[in-house]
Amino acid sequence: MPSESAAAAAAAAAAMNSVGEACTDMKREYDQCFNRWFAEKFLKGDGSGDPCTDLFKRYQQCVQKAIKEKEIPIEGLEFMGHGKEKPESSS
């Protein structure tokens, strides 16, 4: 079960706007979908899939477009998302 600080962090992240104003509604829609799935399914042992994948992909595309339009430098940064494995630690 998540700690209170993890729940507070998730709530704070859900309240934040997206990097692109046009993406904020998509972000909120995805956040609501994910939080509902996480609380109602995943935490109860049903890890049979995330029904929010399509919402995430649309939001991700919107953010990528906004980053390009605002010319935000992202070279050298690695992003995780659906279908990407966590990088191996090199320690």
From TrEMBL:
Signal peptide: none
One of the GO BP terms on file: phospholipid translocation
Catalytically driven reaction(s): a 1,2-diacyl-sn-glycero-3-phosphate(in) = a 1,2-diacyl-sn-glycero-3-phosphate(out)
MF (Gene Ontology): phosphatidic acid transfer activity
Pfam family, one: UPF0203
Keyword Metal-binding: no
Record keywords: Disulfide bond
One GO CC annotation: cytosol
Keyword Acyltransferase set for record: no
Family: Belongs to the TRIAP1/MDM35 family.
PANTHER family in the record: TP53-REGULATED INHIBITOR OF APOPTOSIS 1
Protein name as annotated: TP53-regulated inhibitor of apoptosis 1
Organism: Camelus dromedarius
